[in-house]
Structure formats: structure tokens, C-alpha cells
Amino acid sequence: MPAITRLPPLSLYIHFPWCVRKCPYCDFNSHEKGTDFDEMAYNQALVDDLEQELPRIWGRRIHSIFMGGGTPSLFSPESLDRLLGDLRARLNLAADLEITLEANPGTLEQVRFSEYRAIGINRLSIGVQSFHDDQLQALGRIHGRGEAIAAAEAAHGAGFDNFNLDLMFALPGQSLAQAGEDVQTAIDLEPAHISLYQLTLEPNTLFHHQPPTLPDEDLAWQMQEQGQLRLAQAGFDQYEISAHARTDRQCRHNLNYWQFGDYLGIGAGAHDKISDAQARRVSRQWKLRQPKAYLDAANSDRRIAGQRVLDSQDMLLEFMMNTLRLKQGFTPSLFEQHTGLDFILAEAPLRKAEHKGWIETTEQRIRPTPQGQQFLNDLLGLFLADEAREQKPR
């Protein structure tokens, strides 16, 4: 069992499962907004869910809140204000709490940005994806280039000095020049943070069953290198594989994930990871995915779709899966603090990774090399149970 001597930081994730329309590439738990969309009922379900979870986190401070989806910005400022009030009444919230709201560039949501800022939301993550209308249409997005630009401008106008623009590359029919133009347009809009990631065809999506024609691997790699170079030249630090930030504008919530911190999840389909020092265990739990089923069960244990306790091998793999996405990697002390395990468990696969040129190590830090980040799946394969057992000293 893990010897957890100091609990890791704790965040709160809130899932909002509705969208105006389901995008063909999206594998998140999202459902088209219909007759089951009821802000008041869902807010109450979130509060009921939270109250059931409080014993698992009693007394611990929440350092960040992330409202994801789906499209949380479908909810009115009044509704989210009531929810935040309910959270403040029940949780120990940090004074410098980061509260992020995911938003789409629809005109209805832009006029709400000032009101979101007024109720205490201090960070936006805007799902732009592209600034080319043909690519946006191919992705099934309901906004166009003009709305995407207007959304960033509206965020500035509402007083958000900390917002993210989400961009994808290797899109259907996309050229290298178009990918570069998307990155440059995002830079010109002066966000504090830009997420740049490759479109992948995930299982259980329309694109997986009816795949579009995408740029080949060589072109996709050129798009990635081009984007990363432009962002670096513009003063954005690539602190994670797909995350680029101005100084001191890293997403604190996501950093907590990537450093194997704890997070509580409420809402339909929400996942969490909670450490329990007294019970000497780290557990994961996830909620019912379908909004109606979740609404009906939110005030009982029936809301829980599944749960499991992580064993040592689970924690080794999951820790590496997260921290090796970070440019700065991790320290041995962080591994021991956030897993409760002895660092010796990780030493053999790390030696093999270093021999392959995928990581570089010092006494204080283990970080992935550029080659290691390029071949991250192969790097993580060294920490799989069968592989790790083969590497243990005999």
C-alpha cells in the first residue's frame, strides 16, 4: 500500500454534458441540447452530488475549479452564480482560486462574458479549433472565423486577462500554410494561453466510423513544428506537449492533473482521483454518463458508475503518463509525495528510457527529451506491467 505522508493539491472538475450540436470528432461525454436541458435541475444535481462526496475531501482546500463539457457556457451567468455560491458555502476555497469556464465562440455566449467575469470566473478556455471557415465546417463547428475572432475580442473587452484559445491542426483538407495562419491569428488575438493539438480519430466518434481524409504523418509533423516555433518566437513557453503560455499563465488546473494531483469530479460522466492518507490508498471514481440517469440519481450512491483503487503499477503508469507530458518533467520527491511509493519502483524503466534517449535525468529532475515527447506512447510502454516486470533486477 502507498505511504502517503502529504496529500497532493486538490482541484474540482464540474462536467456540463450538453452542446448545441455534437461535433463528429468529439469523444467527450456530450449530448445535444434537447428537452432534458434544465439548468435549475442540473445545478441542484451538482450540489447533491457534491454533498455526497464531501466526506472524501473534508477539510482539504480547493486550488482550482474547471467547468468543462460539453459546453458549460450554455448555462446562464445567473445559474452559474448560484452554483458558485453553493460551492463557496460547502468548500474550503483558496483565496487565489483559478476558476475556468469552457466556452464556444457563439454570439449568444460572447455577450455573457462580462457577466461571467462579474460572478468570479477568472479564466476562459475558448474552443476556436480553426480560423478557416472550410475547416470549421468540416469539423462540424457551428461558428465561423468572424465569431471566433469576436469571441477573443469579447474576452478582452470583458476584462479577462487570462484566457486560452484551443487550436487543432492536421484537419481535413488543411494545408501547411493554413495551419500556420491559424496559429498566427491566435497569437495576434493576444491570449495568455494557446493549446495546440493534433486532430485524432477517437473511437465512438462519427469521424472514427466515417473517417475524413487527413494530412499524412509527415505533413502533420511539419504543422506541429511550425506551430511550436511560431509560438516560441511570440513568447509562449511550451510547458506541456500541447500547452503554450505567457509567463505565469499556465493553466493551474491542468498542471495539477499533469503533476498527478487530486481532483474531485461532479456532474454527468465526471471522473476523479482522490488520495486517502489514513486508508493508505488512491482511488478513482466516475459518475453516470447519461444526463437523465445522472439527474435521477445525483443524491444517492446510484450516481456512481464505477470506482477502483489504484495499485502500485497503476500509479506508476498514471504518474508517468501525466508528468512526462510536461517539458520540465518531475522530481523523485514529487513521485514519492503524490504516489506514496518508493522511487526505486520507477528506476529500471527510467534507465531504459534514458538509454533510448527519451529522457534526461539529474539528481533533482527527470524530464522528457524532444524525442521522448515525440514518441511518448513508446516511452510510456516501458512502464506497462509486463514490461516493467521484465526490467526488475533478478
Brief synopsis:
This protein has 394 residues and is an alpha/beta fold.
Q: Provide the low-confidence segments as ranges.
A: 387-394
Q: Into which percentage range does the β-strand content fall? A: 15-25%
Mean pLDDT: 93
Rg over CA atoms, rounded to whole Å, is 21 Å
Task: Kindly state the number of beta strands.
Answer: 16
Major sheet, described briefly?
Answer: 9 strands, mixed
Structural class: alpha/beta
Residues in helices, as a percent range: 40-55%
The largest sheet has its strands arranged as: 9-10-8-7-6-5-4-1-11
First-to-last CA distance: 22 Å
Helix count, DSSP H or I runs of 4 or more residues: 17
- The gross shape turns out to be globular
What would you note in describing this structure?
The chain has 394 residues and is α/β, with parallel strands linked by helices. 41% of the residues lie in helices and 23% in strands. The chain has 17 helices and 16 strands. The protein has a nine-stranded mixed sheet with strand order 9-10-8-7-6-5-4-1-11, sandwiched between helices. Strands 12-13-14 form a three-stranded antiparallel sheet, with no helix packed on it. Helix 2 links the parallel strand 4 (61-69) and strand 5. Helix 1 (39-57) packs parallel to helix 2 (77-90) and helix 7 (176-188) packs parallel to helix 9.
Helix and strand arrangement:
Layout: E1 10-16, E2 18-19, E3 31-32, H1 39-57, E4 61-69, H2 77-90, E5 92-103, H3 107-110, H4 113-118, E6 123-129, H5 133-138, H6 145-157, E7 163-169, H7 176-188, E8 193-198, H8 206-209, H9 217-233, E9 237-240, E10 243-245, H10 252-258, E11 262-266, E12 271-276, E13 281-287, H11 291-297, E14 304-309, H12 312-323, H13 332-339, H14 344-355, E15 359-361, E16 366-368, H15 370-374, H16 376-381, H17 385-391
Parallel strand pairs: 1-4, 1-11, 2-3, 4-5, 5-6, 6-7, 7-8
Antiparallel strand pairs: 8-10, 9-10, 12-13, 13-14, 15-16
Helix pairs in contact: 1-2, 7-9
